[in-house]
Amino acid sequence: MKAYVIVEVSIVDKIIYEEYKKLTPAAIAAFDGKFIVRGGRTETLEGDWQPERMVVVEFPSIEKAREWWHSEHYSEAKAIRQRSAHTKMLIVEGA
User: Fold this and answer.
1) For the whole prediction, is pTM greater than 0.70?
2) Residue 93 exposed, middle or buried by CB count within 10 Å (0-12, 13-18, 19+)
């Protein structure tokens, strides 16, 4: 079953975050992942959720998503993101 990493991002340092955006595609592709949503416009339908930036990444399985998250390949990008943004991130299984 496919898995989706869903991320809500609030950027605190746009210059550093740009470095993250350059590194991440290769790390995701190395684990057969692909971007479904990468920072597009959002519209709140219910509640008071007003995310600054949303990202959705599809992986072939939850195992592949976990491998990516814990990988050395993603570690440099992850450290840059953690310095330059506040994030909420989860993995969800889906069709």
Assistant:
1) yes
2) exposed
